[in-house]
Specification:
Blueprint: E1 18-21, H1 25-34, E2 39-45, E3 50-56, E4 62-68
Parallel strand pairs: 1-4
Antiparallel strand pairs: 2-3, 3-4
Length: about 70
């Protein structure tokens, strides 16, 4: 478990309300799309070693869903 306080989202993105690390970000992204969730920031390999995307939860919170790249 890790708690971070961010002042920027990286790559010009807004600061997310919550970041959630998952084992397979591609599978979670595909599921989010299949369920019709609006992807706010596309699935992206970031230069600091994560693959991630942003989505909003039903309460409007911005979620950063990510996996570390190997």
């Amino acid at each position: 478990m890790q708690l971070s306080i961010a002042s920027e989202g990286g790559s010009g993105t807004p600061v997310p309300d919550l970041s959630i690390e998952v084992d397979d970000v591609d599978a979670v992204h595909a599921r989010a799309q299949a369920l019709g969730h609006k992807i706010i920031y596309p699935l992206t390999d970031e230069p600091w070693g994560v693959r991630r995307f942003y989505v909003r939860d039903p309460a409007g919170k911005l979620l950063n869903i990510l996996s570390h790249t190997r």
